[in-house]
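SEVERITY: medium
COMPONENT: batch folding queue
REPORTER: lab tech (J.R.)

DESCRIPTION
The queue accepted two submissions in a row. Attaching both inputs and their returned structure tokens so the on-call engineer can compare them side by side.

ATTACHMENT 1
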Amino acid sequence: MNNEILGVFEEYLSITKMLGSNTTSSYIGDLSSLQEFIGKKSLTSLSSEDIIDFLSQFTNKRTLNRKLSSINTFFRFCHEYNFEHSKISIPMSKLPKTLPKYLSNEEIINYIKLIDRSTPAGPRDYALILFLYASGCRISEALNAQKGDIVDGWLKIRFAKGEKERMVPLAPIALKALEEYLAQQDIRSNYLWLNYKGEKLSRVSAFKIVKKYLNVSPHVLRHSFASALIIGGADLRVVQELLGHSSLVTTQIYTHIQKQNLSDTIQSFHPLRSF
């Protein structure tokens, strides 16, 4: 019975909720861990106490909240589709609000200037970092990008979360670096980013490339893209569209950066600053 319900729930997540495959797998994995913990009990017969017993194993608040989100979503689904008459919902653990880590434009440009583009991998590494910073796309979206997805200076992101499609304009410097990288390729592939074997670049390899030159993860370049736009005065809804966020709430974390920038501007230029 549990396997049958999880199968229906997985279909609900991917088709009805239109969540990406990675997110769906994460939800199912969390519920499978819960199932392993409770043994032969039915998932739909659990009480709040059973779930709290399971969650008490986790001390990291982010891990706890991720698993709790999966469980609450599952029980909302069960209640809505009459798999369970009672609606269980456990409050999330409060997390401190932290700003996403990001690099300034100057930091990124200064770091990538040090890349030796005379080496076989140099043009690719240089172009990849600029591509991530110029587009703000997720690393999975970048690695799935194909040559035909670049049209008139725009990147068509087809493999976004929830299978949604969006268009992002690329800066000329990123387009030029991409053209130079592709021009020196002698391997036929539809994918943009390849390893030395001519195969699609893996997430691990992409992480190592960005870490090597910038000492951060690829996702920090996504934050850097958004932060640069917000600091420059971009509308929050435009940033939401460019990032592919389904909800403006997700994008609103960057308003903290905007407020800090406004505060710094006043401190630097207002005539009362010296009083």
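ATTACHMENT 2
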Amino acid sequence: MALTLLLFFGSAVLIYFSCELFVNAVEWLGKRLAVSRTATGTILAAFGTALPESVVTFVAVAFGHSPAEREIGVGAALGGPLALSTLAYGVVGLTLMGSRRLKVRRKDALDVDCRQMNRDQGWFLSIFVCKFALGLVTFPGKPWLGFLFVGAYALYVLKELRRDERTIDEHELEPLRLRPKDTRPSLLWAALQTGLALVIIFAASRVFVTQLDAIGPWLGLGPQLVALLLSPIATEMPETMNAIIWVRKGRENMALANISGAMMIQATIPTACGLFWTPWLFERPLIAAAAVTTAAVLALFFMFRGERVTGKRLSWASALYLLFVGALLLR
């Protein structure tokens, strides 16, 4: 037990510091690729940090040797959007409320493109509702619909890359960690540091998930509940850590863009994998998780639409997750 707890907390610390390395690299990568500052968060950062949870789903459903293993994959595919739409936004909100330890001052006026964030929530909601509905029915040819979800993410990427917005100014960027004395590091060095950071994030996330799998039985949780409740906390940690780091730098728009971009990946790619290799049918806990996710995103949609975004209002998103967990454990 002592070793499990040591690995649990040690891997969490390693994820945070590797995320700092990743954020530093991906900002330079976006600059060298001439990608807009928001698209750097929604596409480059989100794609990298969404790899752990996507791999968890893919391996479970494609290479699982039992129905239980495939159920874990489906649970992870639902747990990811749940954790992002509640915990991730909630943590960002709490950070924006001010933290001496994180050296973040309270902000009432946020540097956030509410109109764009509102559109992102609308995109996610329309796709997620389809994902939710498909988990309630069965019919011939259902697996082929997985290609539609892959296509939906491709359209989202094209939309983001065509965004008319300036790139990050070089004077705003910290020196690349691998080239601290180089004022204009090349694309190769930025890509190399990005890849290195992702390898560390992936390895540390796998260790974290493994420890959660061991902690789950101590708490009396079955495999599907572990996949739904605990594993997403680990696999979504990189997005949350990235968001905190960007908030500390005063770039709230990139922080929230990273989360919304990761949500788009979670709504499409793991869903496609589930449709390809499983019946994609939801039991009651998964239906409840999908319902809570829908409610959280609807609240975010109207919050951004009314441009009434504050740290305090975002922090309430985490309450939905806690209520969901409490109701599920009591049941």
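NOTES FROM REPORTER
The chain is about 75% helix and 0% strand.
No errors were logged for either attachment.
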